[in-house]
Fold this sequence. Notes:
Helices cover 47% and strands 18% of the residues. By secondary structure, it is of the alpha/beta class.
Amino acid sequence: MGKIIGNIGFGIITGFLYLLALLPLNILYILADFIYFLIYYIVGYRKKMVRTNLSQCFPDYPPQQLKHVEKQFYHNFADYIVETIKLLHISDKQMKRRMVFENLDIICDLLDNGKSIIAYFAHTGNWEWAPSITLGCQQQVARGDMFAQIYRPLRNQHFDRLMLKIRSRFGSVSIAKKVALRTLLTARRDGVVSITGFMSDQKPSHGDTVHIIDFLGRPTPVITGTETLGRRLGMAAVYWDMSKPRRGHYKITVKLLTDDMSQTEPMEITDCYFKMLEESIRNNPAIWLWSHNRWKNAPI
Length: 300
């Protein structure tokens, strides 16, 4: 009975989200302003975590500047929520206007030459809009190239299915992290060229090779599995540098890291990625996800 009630409840929530997605974004941003007020002033969602992260990463910022970045982060986070809901009902034309890819020819040329790619990405801007890259690579999609992203399944199966639906809106494939290597090996065996996005800015999982760098002025253990996989498969690597020119508009600038990870030194690509990411964050600190416990297991 409990499962049936849960299914009905989630069905109601899903139906409500679909109705919200029908609204134009300018209306949804009014909702985002209310969400900002709720999570910042009423709930105080992870406010202590955000403040600690910001103050430790930007010790030279005066209190007023830290407070400004903090508030802007919550504004952007509220935008992220309604923009992700909008993916349930948004046209390709509108998405192409709002999510712009610069230097996309780097990716298209690599795929055209039969080179599979790892796209290093991060929790900046609205990362859920990034799979719309397929709209700019129609020739490669039609040819059967695989566009994918690695994800960690959510504990709630209902919301996990909903997010998978959202992330497949533009034809990309979501690959669970634990089967990433097997899936990409199978693709290579079958002659399928691929580009796969890896969100590599979070704290490393248990079992990752320990690699500590200076990131945002702090000793930081980082994910190394992305590079290990890419080196093993001889994939190319690019960095997706996401920025937010204005509300409701994002740009990803594609930057080539290497055309063959197997020919690079160990941790060379990982170090390069985090240097680029740090520069991206310093250019606009408010668009990174400061609410996650990034330094939970960091060395003192």
